[in-house]
Design a protein that fits this description.
Spore Coat Polysaccharide Biosynthesis Protein SpsA, Chain A, 11 strands, globular, alpha/beta, 309 residues, 9-stranded mixed β-sheet
Length: 309
C-alpha cells in the first residue's frame, strides 16, 4: 500500500477542525494516512483541542502565525509519505476521496499535482481551477467582463468561468484548498515559496510544477466538501489586501518588474471601478446595504495599500 501524508494548517479553527479530521480518520485508507497538523499560534484553543481529542495526530505548534506556505512547509518536512496531501482545515473529505486520487496518481506517473472537485455547502460546484494570470485577464476581471460573459474563454480566462468541472483536465492552476502531490515531483520542484504569506502560493507552485515538466490535473472523480473562507472570514479586509499583494508578488517573481507595474495599474482600476459601483449601490439603498458598504471599505483599503499609504 502507498503511504500518504496529510498536512492541515490551522489558525483559530477549533470550531471546524473536527469535521476535517474526523472525515480523514473515517477514510477508506485511514490506516495508511499520516496526519500532521501545523497550528499557526491559534488563540482559541485549537492546538489543545487537537492534542486532547486527536492524540494520533502529529501536532506542530508554531509560536506565531507563519502564514500558509511556511506552516505547510514545516509539515512537508515532517512527512514521510510517497504522496502528500495539503488540505485546508475547512474541508471535509468523503471516505473514498483520497483512495480514488491515490489510484489515479499510481496509474498516471506523469502527474505531479492532482486536485479533486470542490463541493460547496449549498450543493454547487466550487471554483478550484484557474488559468495563469496575465495583464489581459486581470483587466477583464477589473471591468467585470468575466461576469458579463461567463462562457467566454477570452473574457473569463483567469477564473476559468467557461470551465464546467465535469471532466478530467490538465489545468494551469489548482487552487490551494486540496492538493495531492507526488514526492518525486516535490523533490524536484521544491517547497512552497515562503515569500507568499497567504494566497498566491497556489499560482506559484502550480507554475513551478508545469515548468519542471509535471502535469497538473483536475480530477472530478474524487470530490470533497469545502466551507470556503473559514479562516479569511475572520479578517476579510486584511485577507483581501493580502490576496492582491500576493498577486503582485507573483507578477514580479515570474514576469519581472514591468509586469508588476502593469498589475498595479490594473488593480488600481479594479478597485476604483468597485468603489464607484458599490458607492452607488450603497447610496441607492439609502445606506441599508451593509455588503455594499463593506466592499467600498475593502477596496479603499486595497487602494491605500497600492498607494503606499
Amino acid at each position: 500500500m502507498v503511504n500518504i501524508s496529510i498536512i492541515v494548517v490551522t489558525w483559530n479553527n477549533k470550531n471546524i477542525i473536527s469535521a476535517c479530521l474526523d472525515s480523514l480518520f473515517e477514510a477508506d485508507n485511514a490506516a495508511n494516512l499520516e496526519i500532521i497538523v501545523a497550528d499557526n499560534d491559534s488563540t482559541d484553543g485549537t492546538a489543545d483541542f487537537i492534542r486532547e481529542k486527536y492524540p494520533q495526530v502529529e501536532l506542530i505548534c508554531n509560536s506565531q502565525n507563519l502564514g500558509f506556505a511556511k506552516a505547510n512547509n514545516l509539515g512537508i518536512r515532517r512527512a514521510t509519505g510517497e504522496l502528500i496531501c495539503l488540505i485546508n482545515s475547512d474541508v471535509a473529505v468523503p471516505a473514498d476521496c483520497v483512495s480514488k486520487m491515490v489510484s489515479y496518481m499510481q496509474n498516471n506517473p506523469a502527474i505531479g499535482m492532482l486536485g479533486p472537485r470542490m463541493l460547496l455547502k449549498n450543493g454547487t460546484i466550487g471554483q478550484s481551477c484557474m488559468r495563469f494570470p496575465t495583464i489581459w485577464n486581470q483587466f477583464c476581471r477589473a471591468l467585470g467582463l468575466d461576469t458579463l460573459f461567463p462562457k467566454s474563454k477570452l473574457f473569463g480566462g483567469f477564473l476559468m468561468t467557461d470551465f464546467r468541472y465535469d471532466r478530467i483536465e490538465e489545468v494551469d492552476i489548482l487552487t490551494g484548498w486540496f492538493w495531492m502531490v507526488r514526492r518525486e515531483a516535490l523533490n524536484q520542484v521544491g517547497l512552497l515559496d515562503e515569500r507568499y504569506f497567504f494566497y498566491g502560493e497556489d499560482m506559484d507552485w502550480s507554475k513551478r510544477f508545469h515548468d519542471a515538466g509535471w502535469r497538473v490535473v483536475f480530477y472530478p472523480e474524487a470530490e470533497a466538501y469545502h466551507n470556503c473562507a473559514a479562516s479569511s472570514s475572520k479578517a476579510p479586509t486584511r485577507f483581501y489586501v493580502e490576496m492582491n499583494r500576493a498577486n503582485s508578488q507573483y507578477f514580479q517573481i515570474h514576469h519581472g518588474r514591468l509586469a508588476r507595474v502593469g498589475y498595479w495599474a490594473v488593480t488600481g482600476l479594479h478597485q476604483l471601478v468597485r468603489i464607484i459601483g458599490y458607492s452607488f449601490a450603497y447610496l441607492l439603498s439609502l445606506g441599508r446595504s451593509s455588503e455594499a458598504g463593506f466592499k467600498v471599505r475593502r477596496s479603499a483599503a486595497c487602494m491605500r495599500w497600492l498607494m503606499g499609504i
